[in-house]
Amino acid sequence: MYKSEVLSKHLKKFFGFDKFKGNQEAIIRNVLEGNDTFVLMPTGGGKSLCYQLPSLLLEGTAIVISPLIALMKNQVDAMRNFSEEDGIAHFMNSSLNKVAIDHVKADILSGKTKLLYVAPESLTKEDNIEFLKQIKISFYAVYEAHCISEWGHDFRPEYRRIRPIINEIGNAPLIALTATATPKVQHDIQKNLGMLTATVYKSSFNRSNLYYEVKPKSKDVDKDIIKYIRANAGKSGIIYCLSRKRVEELTQTLTMNGISSLPYHAGMDSAQRSENQDRFLMEKVDVIVATIAFGMGIDKPDVRYVLHYDMPKSLEGYYQETGRGGRDGGEGQCIAFYAYKDLDKLRKFMQGKPVAEQEIGNQLLLETQAYAESSICRRKMLLHYFGEDYSEDNCGCCDNCMKPKKQVEGQELLSLVLETILMVREKFKAEHVVDILKGNETSDVKSYQHDDLESFGSASDESDRLLQSVIRQAVLAGYISKDIENYGLLKLTASGKAYLKTPVSFPIVKDNEYEEEEDDVVVKSAGGTCAADDVLFSILKDLRKKMSKKLEVPPFVIFQDPSLEAMATCYPITMDELQNIPGVGAGKAKRYGEEFLKVIKEHVKENDSIRPEDLRVRTVPNKSKLKVSIIQSIDRKIALDDLALSKGLDFSELLDEIEAIVYSGTKINIDYFLEEIMDKDHVIDIFDYFNSAETDKIKDALEELGEDDYNETEIRLVRIKFLSEIGN
Known about the structure:
The chain is α/β, with parallel strands linked by helices. The chain has 5 domains: 4-202, P-loop containing nucleotide triphosphate hydrolases (Rossmann fold); 210-338, P-loop containing nucleotide triphosphate hydrolases (Rossmann fold, 3-Layer(aba) Sandwich); 405-509, Arc Repressor Mutant, subunit A (Orthogonal Bundle), CATH 1.10.10; 534-615, Orthogonal Bundle (DNA polymerase, domain 1), CATH 1.10.150; 624-727, ATP-dependent DNA helicase RecQ (Arc Repressor Mutant, subunit A), CATH 1.10.10.1390. The chain is globular and about 90 Å long.
């Protein structure tokens, strides 16, 4: 239909490019020929052009179904920049009033509009369906098509209604586009859209310019991020967080430390989101701190780093978000901060959802955990996840390849794993196989009588971590396959069965170990978890001990260790400076601060200490709005569970906020809530425990009081009461 030179001419005329990238020309030709088309192309590969150019060449209007208002605006603006006529592209969504919608419809009916972007929710409205029936539709494009699949990382139920709506409006060729889809997700998309016979164009997932690294997430992660950004000053970057609350807090912290940054999340009004996005694109700010709502289809070529404050819920999500980096082929640093407890928290959030949904979610989280903890090439793992083999032994562009670990022989363990998978008839997941090899008498192992198997306990001396690593590396080597349809059941491949007959050397590397940190400390230390001045820290601890004896209160009631560590790093010598130390606040500074300031001043003077004010990570004072609101609500005796709901927090997060309030020296009274939900004797027992305890750690309290009789939430609530009454 169109010769290559003609298509190249149109490409130059409309978009200013001299040549097509990768599969673009073949895809565009297929669309122009009226065929259904499935496009699997990594972020930065040029998916948008695959439907934009055909829309300009074909008669009628192309309907682009897109999930985000911000994405629509960005792409409509881009199309208008390529044309003399603004009416060439429009969007129709909830952000438009009736006058604006009438204007859009008039342009479409006049034939000016070649591209119309609609949200799936707008597509289902009866009046929009009736309007679209009147016009000539050149084709439908489903953007971010992975939203259709429950196995995808951003499942949107309304996406599953697209096919029936298209049938109602009127059939036309269909192009589905996504940057991330495992073979399972790809099949799900094609099946749901009724395009199983579509021509599939699958580009390589390998982004050779991206560097991948996973760092352990310390309590000082904010400081680590600030150091990194300062070392990359002037470069554009994105930081992804899982919660809106974390986005707001981190943005405030970055701003307080002189870093130009803006937040972006679905809780903000659309005008503010659009403004923040535009300011980032126009390079008026260096950093966007965002939830996964940001970046879908955003064409900023020079994002030089993508940081993950939290590990995402799936590897699809991780791959797509890291794909925002280095789209121009230049530098793209992808660094994720990993803590197992973050994934554990995500698992808890899934409780209460349908069992099938929980199974899918858990399987996706296990893949994310495996990626984070593995010490083999990260590029190899990512590409394998998307069904692509990477044959290089060392990619030279990930932390594991740059600092390879020593290999150990895994032949015997691999044979044990393969034999056990066959013994359980290939009907169980990795965790169950590991339990058998370890000799763990779990309820599942016992109920299936797998404790009678010959291999039960055969690897009892090995760690769970090592056995999981053997399974993971056997999957990569092609000896084991995971049946994704059945939530990750392990099956032997033909190579795996051949290996059992003729075992050969199987060198493996042990997984990275990330030490889990105590979760009890609610105060984030600006000075780090270790004091810069050990001598001063020791002096301050002695002073705290003397004061606790004199006042007859436990030491932690006066100041927690992180607060002393911050004092021994930042050397506060005025009351104002002391109040800015995390966990102090005005109340505690006034009550206990004078003696501490006196000791610090003397120490600074005697040792001629340099006070590193410019190196201190400044924290946002008090998070005052939320703090005041919580205090006022408690004064009005609003039930804490209702209060959490109204603030968009889970109950544990609300307790974090209340603990920070009382640790900072503010007195509050939650007796009204305790009387309603707790046994009076329990309250007395826990209160008495803290009165004589040497530490305020929840773990120690549970051990002393007994986990069968008391739970963590009860202990945290009474600890708040105790600190408020005794310390404040």
